[in-house]
Design goal:
about 55% helix, mainly alpha, about 5% strand, 5-stranded antiparallel β-sheet, 5 strands
């Protein structure tokens, strides 16, 4: 049986239980998860239910409720032997001295003897009789366990996950279907059978976030571990959600996930592998190193192509962090740095190709509001940092090949951008008001013909693919063709 269970109620059961009270609802889940139908479960729901009332009347839908489940320890008395008390030792009677040597007792003592004699007559045993008595062995006491409950249930309404090994949880759902929904539709109900995995996951979470860890994060982790996908964390906390999702996948109801194979296709895959290694050995992982590595998470959003200056600054910061990791944790992060560096290099080539293609489209689809700023000038420092960090991480010239290829292709792309900027200037001139008011439209028509031919050529040769792959031969061919069309435009502008 798995360590965790979750509630699954069919639609027919919902109809049947539509009229059940909240106490009956809790009792049904107690019996469902624990199979305990003795008096202890009924005592809980028939007693003080103020914690349940607070949960159901909470308008903010932030309160949670737990019921701890404890099994009482029962001693096994079947083999217990009650030993009788030890028999008293019978001493031999003392020798009585001869009467000749006895002095005649005084009158007072004689009176006392008479009193004792009277008491003997009343039924008291003499000292001699007492010494010869044999003590009675008491019968063994039979202890019955009929009144010991199978389980002990207790409400826990504090905003903290209980430390008990077993407990039920009642957590409001983030989305309410309708106002007449049943309690099963309003709340997540689950049962933790063994808190060992949950405690291990919380330990990892506390090491990462420390004082920034909130109760909402813990509840989100609890739901994720139980296979309940409910967004209880605000959307702006996407980074925190990513960390919790990866930690929970290592301790979910299906057990630990298999090793993640990451080949630098995505920074999220690389960081998922990093978090998995952290969950395997949380005590031996350096927190500072882990946080620096996790700071690369937002690199993933550069693929959405923000402003060029933003992209350039983020690349420079990432490469600085890699250099710092290599300096502080060389042996521990060598493989991670190599994998991440290659991913960053591929991402940079993709972004560079996208921006150059966008600028080239501006030649044939002129729109002043969509003008693209300088590209290679903004990325010049980025390429320089790529080269320097490459020398720190990789040791042989074979490993430097990918970086050298990007560096050489970047130089040719710079020439391409210069020619594209020159063509855009001529296009702007042809679209100026003075040209537009001219009756001679020959220059405008000639310019459109040249630009159309250039556009067809760039689409056939796929400018974006050539820049992204860094194919030097293709880039040289593209540069030569663009230069040729630029010279033709210069002659048209000069003639008209």
């Amino acid at each position: 049986m798995s360590d965790y269970d979750t509630s699954s109620i069919s639609s027919e059961e919902d109809v049947e239980n539509k009229e059940e009270t909240s106490q009956q609802w809790v009792y049904r889940h107690l019996v469902q998860f624990t199979n305990c139908e003795d008096i202890s479960a009924k005592t809980l729901v028939d007693g003080d239910c103020s914690p349940l009332i607070q949960l159901l009347t909470d308008m903010t839908q932030t309160k949670t409720l737990f019921i701890t489940v404890t099994k009482p320890v029962q001693a096994d008395l079947s083999t217990t032997v009650v030993e009788p008390p030890p028999a008293p030792v019978v001493l031999p009677p003392k020798k009585v001295k001869s009467q000749k040597k006895l002095k005649k007792p005084k009158r007072r003592k004689k009176r006392k003897l008479k009193k004792k004699g009277k008491e003997d007559k009343k039924g008291k045993k003499s000292k001699k009789d007492k010494k010869n008595d044999v003590p009675l062995i008491p019968e063994p006491v039979l202890i019955t366990m009929d009144n010991v409950p199978d389980m002990i249930f207790e409400w826990i309404s504090e905003q903290e996950i209980p430390n008990a090994d077993q407990f039920l949880f009642f957590i409001p759902k983030s989305k309410v279907p309708n106002t007449e929904a049943s309690l099963d539709e309003l709340y997540h109900v689950g049962y933790i059978r063994n808190q060992r995995h949950l405690k291990a996951a919380l330990k990892c979470l506390e090491k990462v976030f420390r004082e920034k860890l909130t109760y909402a994060m813990k509840i989100y982790l609890l739901l994720q571990i139980n296979g309940i996908d409910d967004l209880k964390i605000p959307k702006d906390l996407v980074f925190e959600k990513f960390i919790i999702d990866n930690i929970s996948r290592n301790y979910n109801i299906d057990g630990r996930i298999r090793n993640i194979e990451s080949d630098a296709r995505s920074i999220t895959l690389i960081l998922s592998q990093t978090l998995q290694a952290f969950c395997n050995l949380p005590d031996s992982t350096d927190r500072a190193r882990l946080l620096i590595q996790l700071s690369f998470y937002d690199i993933e959003f550069l693929s959405e192509f923000p402003e060029i200056h933003v992209t350039s600054a983020r690349f420079e910061q990432a490469l600085d962090h890699m250099s710092l990791l290599q300096f502080l944790y060389k042996e521990e992060v060598t493989e991670w740095n190599r994998k991440t560096y290659l991913y960053l290099l591929d991402l940079f080539s993709t972004i560079l190709a996208h921006e150059i293609t966008r600028k080239s489209n501006f030649m044939t689809n002129y729109a002043p509001e969509k003008k693209v700023g300088p590209i290679c000038a903004s990325f010049k420092k980025v390429v320089q940092k790529f080269v320097s960090v490459c020398r720190e991480i990789f040791e042989t010239q074979e490993d430097w090949a990918a970086t050298n290829k990007v560096s050489f292709s970047f130089y040719i792309v710079g020439i391409l951008e210069e020619e594209i900027d020159s063509i855009i200037e001529k296009v702007e001139e042809m679209n100026s008001e003075s040209r537009d008011m001219s009756l001679d439209r020959s220059a405008i028509h000639a310019t459109k013909v040249i630009l159309s031919e250039l556009d067809v050529y760039l689409q056939e040769k796929c400018l974006e693919s050539a820049v992204e792959s860094g194919n030097l031969e293709s880039l040289r061919s593209l540069a030569a063709t663009i230069v040729k069309h630029n010279r033709r435009l210069e002659r048209v502008v000069a003639l008209y």
